[in-house]
User: Fold Cloroperoxidase from Ophiobolus disseminans.
Amino acid sequence: MLAKLSTLFAVLPLAAAWPQVMHMNEQMHKREEPPQRQPLFKSGRQNTGLPALGFNAQDQFVNVTRGSGHEFAPPGSGDLRGQCPGLNAAANHGFIPRNGLLNTAQTVSGLGAAYNMAPDLALFLAVVSIALAGDPVSGRWSIGGKFTPTIPLFKATGLVGTHNAYEGDASIIRGDAYLNGGSVGVFQMRSWEHLYQLAEEYTLDDIAAQSDYVTRWSILNNPYYFSAPFSGLVAPAAHNFVINFMSNHSAEKPGGTLTREVLKSFFAVTGDSPGNFVHNRGQERIPENWYRRPTANAMTVPQVLLDVQVNNAMYPGIVRIGGNTGTVNSFAGVDLTDLTGGVFNLGGLAEGNQAACFLLQASLAGLPDVVSPLLGAVGSVLGWATQQLGPLSRQFGCPQLANFDNSLFNGFPGAKFNGNGQS
Ligand code: HEM
Ligand SMILES: *[C@@H]1O[C@H](CO)[C@@H](O)[C@H](O)[C@H]1NC(C)=O
Ligand SMILES: *[C@@H]1O[C@H](CO)[C@@H](O)[C@H](O)[C@H]1NC(C)=O
Assistant:
């Protein structure tokens, strides 16, 4: 419909005479739908990713009833909330502090209790949050906006201030910062409606289709579309988190089921069809009578990478490093071998823990190199994060730290676009 209208404007000779019509025409060009695309194959994966290892009602039941201490309460005026529905819901139920400010131990225990996120993954995600946008001295980070760090040297902007470092373009629902005046938290009804109509019960294969759709949509519409080595993996991974973490589990289906009702609860959406959906900001909610993934299937870092890799094999291009070069549909990729001085190459990522190692190193490559004596012997934020992630890096058998050649990103205007919330 929009495409047709813009074609119409293009053939109308009066368009050139009225600048506002030209402007409208351009606006419309900015909202082009990508053509349909079929996957190369379907994986048929269970919602746990790897096959579920049983069901234990008592262990998996997440008690959010009144008196459990985990009943729902909307955020109060001082509470921090951001663009991640999983974290907002965990905070709204007190699995992590309701004020949205937490340390690594609270991240590991809270997200384990609510979702069976494995300690390695929770620790990794928290360390990156602290290093990028938190306070390494007090060891805290914010799921939303800024907070007061121990010393002003650390920006402590919270997750909302991490555009292209942690948060990225082509998110499952949230709009691209550049297309939304710099905001990273805009609930995009178009994306929601696209996701909603993909199925009545969602699987990883459905979410792969969404991941492919939003990626191609952003390339087609956002001249500043950019996919950094780290945030470019986070957005595709976050797609899978919807299936991996929000599904409900049962004896009949230990791998889990994700219904529209449960999806809406976690995403704070009411309504039941396109045109009447409402996003209720900050109201993300764990449903009553909900069972998390099996403890034996706690979600680890390698599992995250595996699901992303399968999606990318189904729809090549879900994972990419590079961006548009200032106009829409101008994507140019950056070669992994060039970027990492030969330490990583695309083919090798499928082997062993190479992808997990790349993820770890990519996260470190994006850190501010802030130096402070308060950080003790490690000296800097980079040193702090490297030390924190050392055990994981050794556990995965990662190669020597690759030296990322970030100058390769100079030609991408999106790489320098900060978005709001960074100060
Ligand atoms: C320490 C743990 C976590 C951290 C640091 C974290 C961080 C983030 C960040 C930075 C984003 C923005 C990515 C983007 O631009 O698309 C994001 C998005 C997202 N996260 Fe989380 N997250 C965590 C845990 C979870 C959990 C447990 C779930 C699921 C229950 C989850 C589900 C999602 C989803 C679905 C999105 C996409 C939101 C949208 O586009 O509407 N996350 N998260
Ligand atoms: C959930 O918590 C409530 C309140 O503490 C308690 O009465 C109830 O027995 C719990 N339910 C289960 C299944 O443990
Ligand atoms: C989760 O599954 C169980 C078993 O099928 C069911 O009784 C319960 O209502 C489901 N919970 C939600 C929130 O759909």
Observations:
- Strands lie at 61-62, 101-103, 140-142, 226-227, 269-270, 278-279, 290-291, 322-323, 332-333.
